Amino acid sequence: AAMVQKYQSPVRVYKHPFELIMAAYERRFPTCPLIPMFVASDTVNEYKSEDEAIHVIERRCKLDIDAPRLLKKIAGVDYVYFVQKNSLNRRERTLHIEAYNETFSNRVIINEHCCYTVHPDNEDWTCFEQSASLDIKSFFGFESTVEKIAMKQYTSNIKKGKEIIEYYLKQLEEEGITFVPRWTPPVACKLESSTSHMRRPVSPAINIPDPATKEGLNNKEMLNTSSSPSEPTAGTPDDKLDADYIKRYLGDLTPMQESCLIRLRQWLQETHKGKIPKDEHILRFLRARDFNIDKAREILCQSLTWRKQHQVDYILDTWNPPQVLQDYYAGGWHHHDKDGRPLYVLRLGQMDTKGLVRALGEEALLRYVLSINEEGLRRCEENTKVFGRPISSWTCLVDLEGLNMRHLWRPGVKALLRIIEVVEANYPETLGRLLILRAPRVFPVLWTLVSPFIDDNTRKKFLIYAGNDYQGPGGLLDYIDKEIIPDFLGGECMCEVPEGGLVPKSLYRTAEELENEDIKLWTETIYQSASVFKGAPHEVLIQIVDASSVITWDFDVCKGDIVFNIFHSKRAPQPPKKDSLGAHSITSPGGNNVQLIDKVWQLGRDYSMVESPLICKEGESVQGSHVTRWPGFYILQWKFHSMPACATTNLPRVDDVLASLQVSSHKCKVMYYTEVIGSEDFRGSMTSLESSHSGFSQLSAATTSSSQSHSSSMISR
Fold it and tell me: Which residue stretches belong to region Disordered (predicted)?
């Protein structure tokens, strides 16, 4: 079984000029006392350009890997050799380092790329980045051991990299070297250097698209998008994360944890077109899955889809909690705990959960809890700024004084479980500590009902005190400053949290009333979901009367890869038959899956393709539009995207065979929304469409709606 591990570093910024950093870097060779495993290095190849701007040097490095003796014996080697090729360009002020292993190169493939470049906003600073991949094909049955050793050695070296440069900078300073002049072209060969191929075209007459101008643009864009106060723009070139920012705003992460964050964030930027959650929120999902990048990506995508489907951001902006909640929901924010975490106080024992559910329904309660969680995220961000260190979770103090059998009312407990489930899924790792105070005798019963639904990581953070134990040693004072202990717990701080109390029966509503209201607010969503199976696409019919209309669509691929098509037909397709024996009615209980295109229809005769097919990968959000040329029937189709077999042979690849064995891979899921607009209204309504359905605004620091729509296919008029 091949294992591939990838690593991507944050940007490390040295506040020293490139030339000085190079002088420090060169001192690592031929050996370096700070890296004991780096035993020796020999120069194998060297090239210098005539003007000395380019210097390429290839070294063979001898490493003494810290591995168990037995393993070395089995492998039959004492040392491992690497080839490292350094390409220095003094004119551009860059150093690129490529390294790969020579020993065992048929069993293990290690590739590393590092680069030192000039900081885009300050030419006297230097940026460093590195990425690497490790692919273990086979190693005498010790693959996982080798992987562990390699990862351990590698991450410890990453940490050392910075210390080494700083060590040699200090050494240079002690020798009185604090400045190294920049390269300047030698006077004699001025002519040659301008024709040298490294030079970018300077002639202003012809407009040659120059990579430099493109980079300039990116920086500008970056300044625009991250102007929201929550993102420090200082020193992050090109929207990458730098090491100092991570330490200050996100915490002490190991190199592999940093790498996971950077890779997941990069993936989101590529697939979610500018609408991505804040870094600290992405990190919460990674923590919730122990930094398993695939699992974290899955729950994060589900959460983004959920936010979009239920228009969470829109609801939080526009919804005012009903008066009943403001009067009878006994919870509220109250200062912060000793660690600087926001503190939420909930007087659950004083709260009439049954009355609230009867008067409001679960939906309104759930929505209220969501707004509390969103406020928690905001307070964490605020406290991170105030306390000068990363704070990513809050503390919850639950007072159970007054809890009774009424709280065990089944629908109330069910509502509670559903709310816990939604919060666990969409706000992972936000609860830093839960203090449960004055737990009565019924509490263990409630606890056994609820605890199975709570994630293990979260459960570790619970502290439960019976009676007045919270006043004793190891009690509340360990976690909360004396000055802010609320009055109802015997403290001196006035606590604004509502007292709760029984909800009057006159406010209760019937199931029907609640049902009607809920549908309007919550469960009804403008998006519809559909399932797509191999051999069973999902098709939607749109009838166009006015020839120049605009069909718009906005969809998310929740699972699997699909191909999106749009067809035109002069005659109406037959309404789909609900065949009771069809393959997909068995596989998809309740899955929305409709075929309209008749099996006997021929493409080009009965119907035609009006847009080229668009392949959409799992997790992508796609928005687009099509200007219709003819009246008639248009069919939007989402089709299963099957991987083509290997180009060179007709044999399917091993992974494809494996993939096709997993039944789940035969089902894709799409969530879509379509609308037809008259062409004269098109420009205006398109913007409104984008602003109202960009689903993640509250979560993302930079909400640039994806106006370079995926397939804005204006057909020649």
Answer: 200-239
